[in-house]
Here is the input.
Amino acid sequence: MPYIQPAVATQFAQIRPDISKAPLFRKDSEGDRGRETDSTPLAKHEATAYVHVSTLERYVTVEQHEVVVQGMHALSQQFSAFRADVEKEREGVKERERVTDARIQRLEAQIEAQHKLYTQHITQADARIERERERDLEWEREKEKEREVTLQAVRESLPAMLSRGNSRTNLMVSKGPLDILSVAQKDQAYPEADETEGAKVLDKTPGATLRSAQTSQRTPHLHVDTTERGERGERGERERVDTSKGLSVRQSTPNPRKPVYPPVVFSPTSCHADVTFSHGNTMVERKAGHGWMPALVSGPWTEGVHSVTFRIDSMAKGIMLGVCDPNVRLENVHRTKQGWAIYSGGKRCTANKAYTYGKGFRVGALVTVLVNMATRSVAFAVDGTPCGTAFSSLPSAVCPYVEMWDEGDSVTIVR
Here is the structure.
């Protein structure tokens, strides 16, 4: 090893503590003196090395130049390793930034998708509410029109009815049906019958007083509900209103005794818990869930020929319409042997089997269920087009019913 002068070595040992404390100055040029360098870890090491080299240049002799070169080489290797570590750390930071940016983009995409979905649900709900509002307004307009037609018909026929009735006949017109108070003249009482919606049987006891016997009578042109009230006196013969030829009073003929049928409306006690009713129980709607949930119509029908027409107000995937046993389990009725129905796709279904039948139906269609208890058969018609007999060998008592699959499905009884 080259010899170092003792004085130089002693002086170098004295300034070594000061080297580590030296400020970070570069000696690039005279103009750069006093200018502070970058404060990054790598820059600090480079500045420290520069101070060391400058010190060695001042205090090391020429013979020790080789030793200085070797020291510089080792120091350069350390700096290279340190620089590699710093670059690796920078790459790691960049990679973490890329991962974070990708995660943020995915979260933003999910938030946007959820926002679109919620917006779509809100739009659908608003549209459903608007449809219901329009349906309610249309129903009110139809009822108002029927009341106006009834009042006009009564005004036109009132003089003739008063002239043809007896002195004790009193006619009263309200916003509802036409109320007619008829005083009978015979002791014998006969049943009060209606061809479309069943009959009310009156007691045949002579001298009995009929206080409130109501029948619903309809004509092809004026669907007018007429309430008939009478009191039987000594002769007991009743009078009724014939709406087929204008409003007039005529004598009726004796009719055979018939059972009493309730109005054709949905029965709130014979339905699944996930359905609701409105408009006087003539409209049913599925309020939640999925699956075949039924709603039965009042009944049952045990004899005679009957029909009921449903209007499909809203349907997502499918609806069943038909008849069933009054005691059927209120779930998946058409899959049992106690339900007979037509599917919206046009097939007839019973006992969990489907058969080719006739025309399907969509939203707005009118589907009629026709039951003949004399032949124990049921037939269907879609928008007035008969599809033929669907099932026979029905039980002795049946009820019309509706099955809805999706939330929001709704059906209305129109006649």
Q: What stands out?
A: The first helix runs from residue 6 to 20.
